[in-house]
Amino acid sequence: GEDVEQSLFLSVREGDSSVINCTYTDSSSTYLYWYKQEPGAGLQLLTYIFSNMDMKQDQRLTVLLNKKDKHLSLRIADTQTGDSAIYFCAESIRTNFGNEKLTFGTGTRLTIIP
Amino acid sequence: AAGVIQSPRHLIKEKRETATLKCYPIPRHDTVYWYQQGPGQDPQFLISFYEKMQSDKGSIPDRFSAQQFSDYHSELNMSSLELGDSALYFCASSLLGSSYEQYFGPGTRLTVT
Lengths: 114, 113
Hints:
The structure holds two protein chains of two kinds. Chain A has strands spanning 4-6, 9-13, 18-24, 31-37, 43-50, 55-58, 61-66, 71-76, 85-94, 100-104, 108-113. Chain A is mostly beta strands. Chain A starts with a strand and ends with a strand.
């Protein structure tokens, strides 16, 4: 997580928008990702964005990428109690083999206030 | 839709014992990745395989080894277990040409006492 940084905690009122931020250091990242982890569960791939894009929208999720500042954000519209989880930002570097090697951030714990 | 299957889901071992974790990728996925997530930490990449061949290597200790079989399932073998090996071990799978879409299994929680 040292190359990918996130705030540890975020609290949001139900129905409001949540914005989770992430900064990364490697300018050669090919993709940036958001994963969701609920308590005791695995990592769910929420969305990803190619490093040449600056925005991607998927239903309630909006990803913004500022490549110049190496800043990635995830906006969740109309936040619901089911959105409570830890959100991991990740970047990937293409290896010599051709795989995308993921490096994760520390995770942001999103808490929804009723 | 079928997901990545990992077994066992929970495992308790004593120090210096060995453990074997199994991963069954999503059907038709040919690449498997292993990650380790310590308590309160982010997942760390350990190793990956494509067509039974090791493709990339991360921070995997020498005490650990892994392999991929002809049916694409993979096993992570851990020997001389230490207390610090207690973690959640994730397997992920993808198609080689689509490794930007890695789908994770539910994880195996290993506790070393």
